[in-house]
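Give me the fold.
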Amino acid sequence: MFMKNFRTEFRWALIISFFTILWYYFEKWIGLHDEFVGREDLFNLLVYIPIAVLYYFEMRNKREDYYKGYISWQKATLSGGILSALIAVISPLVQYIFKEYISPEFFENAIENAVEVGRMKREGAKTLFNYRTYIIQSIFDSLAYGVVISALVALIVKREYKEKQ
């Protein structure tokens, strides 16, 4: 019963997680994991634009398929919140793929860059740029940004049922 009610959210959590993996490949391809590693954190904020679009498609899909064309702001926001929670659950796997297959050298490059440009001392950089910290950060970011995106996108997607008088 649970999976039937949240099939849409689960499918879109997988789609968004796959998109995130593709985004990491794109970052690596343009040099943000080595040559321009110091700019990766700012550039990475841009990922939330296409993710907001994907949230829109998820909520629209939920509205049309599950709620028969009508969804309140609250239900759309709840759907987005569930989507965010599922993405947070999947995010350690996404971070593992990032660390092991996409950019195993990223953390060392980020540490070296932070120390080299004087942003922080080596120990502080090691604390910030490591696999464990990125897993925790990805879980909290998925939840925090996801809930905010959900509430905003729900304003666009909502379509209230109006009874004929």
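The chain is about 75% helix and 0% strand.
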